[in-house]
Amino acid sequence: MAISDNEFEQLRDFIYNICGMYFHTSKKYFLENRFSRRMEATGTKAFQDYFLLLQSTQGSEELTYLMDEITTNETYFFRNVSQLAAIENKLLPELVEIKKKMGSSTLRIWSAASSSGEEAYTLAMILLEKRSKLLKEWNIEIVGTDINETVIAQANEGIYNAYSVRNIPDAYRDKYIREDNGKFILSPEIKEFVTFNKLNLYEDAKMVFMENFDLIFCANVLIYFDVASKSKVVRHFYNNLQPNGYFFVGQSESLHGVNDKFKTVHFPGCFGYKK
Fold first, then answer.
1. Judging by DSSP bridges, how do beta strands 270-274 and 106-112 pair with one another?
2. Distance of alpha carbon 177 from alpha carbon 264, whole angstroms
3. Which DSSP helix (H) or strand (E) runs through 163?
4. Same-fold call for 5-70 versus 81-274
5. pTM metric for this prediction
6. Residue 116 has what pLDDT?
7. CATH architecture, domain 5-70
């Protein structure tokens, strides 16, 4: 179903005001396609009928389904290897020393826009391997959030396909993954360290409660925001971090022109932002 330029702009602006995602006119066909699926599912025949549904008091459930359709969730375990190496070899020892001086033995990590959980669970594997020495008797809290309820359910389930697990090093895979009839099932030992919740990064009232994190990851999300939306979301991330905490974005993303409070720190093959 084709929609007019005016209808596209109406829908685009509505989505922008809800979650900060901005769809350029080049994405009109993509939005038409996803929009048509939801019109068919709801039995609405005309654009304005569906648009009125989204704005109605009964529209919150349908808005959830629409958000599921338009968000991209391509991810896999051990995706950003350079970032993971920096965390394991440099940042964890640094953060442990800083927190010891503060009298704290809790490490809090947030995987924002966590999709189906691969990033959060990757971090759990790395940290769990440190519990015998570096993180012995430490409390480890890993939180994954996403606006898409479908992928949150997948993350909680902890069952993956061969594509998702293809980059897991053998030592981790043998220890934390069980294969069953082509499905790869995460061990309960890893799952207990991670909690997943629905969260709209553009919702101020919810973001202010995401407090006291030592590491925050938000990969390949800011590319969907315009400068104003990026600035708003990144400002929250800055406030959500502990002093000396680190913020990581995707390898093709940058905070240049978005936020000047962070200090850029370079590592082999990657960079991060320090508060």
1. unpaired
2. 35
3. helix 162-165
4. no
5. 0.85
6. 95
7. Orthogonal Bundle (1.10)
Q: Where are the beta strands (DSSP E) in the chain?
A: 106-112, 139-146, 159-160, 177-180, 183-186, 194-198, 213-218, 241-249, 263-267, 270-274
Grouping H, G, I as helix, E, B as strand and the rest as coil, residue 38 is helix
Superfamily holding 81-274: Vaccinia Virus protein VP39 (3.40.50.150)
What 95-103 contacts at long range (C-beta under 8 Å, 24+ apart), as own/partner pairs, is 95/214, 95/215, 95/244, 95/245, 96/134, 96/135, 96/138, 98/244, 99/214
Cβ–Cβ under 8 Å, residues 123 and 89: no
Q: Which residue(s) pair with 274 in the sheet?
A: 246, 263
Whether the CA torsion 250, 170, 120, 242 is positive or negative: it is negative
Q: Tell me the per-residue pLDDT of 9-52, one tens digit each, with 9 for 90 and over.
A: 888 888 888 888 888 888 888 888 888 888 999 999 888 898 89
Tokens found for residue 27: 């994405």
Q: What is the DSSP letter of 202?
A: T
Residue 118 has pLDDT above 90, yes or no: yes
Q: What would the mean pLDDT of 244-254 be, rounded to a whole number?
A: 91
d(CA 268, CA 32): 42
Summarised one tens digit per residue, pLDDT across range 88-117 is 999 999 999 999 999 999 999 999 999 999
Distances (CA, A) of 72 to 4, 58, 216, 255: 24, 25, 20, 21
Q: Do residues 177 and 187 lie in contact, with contact meaning Cβ atoms separated by under 8 Å? A: yes
Rounded CA separation 245/258 (Å)? 18
- Structural domain spans, the chain: 5-70, 81-274
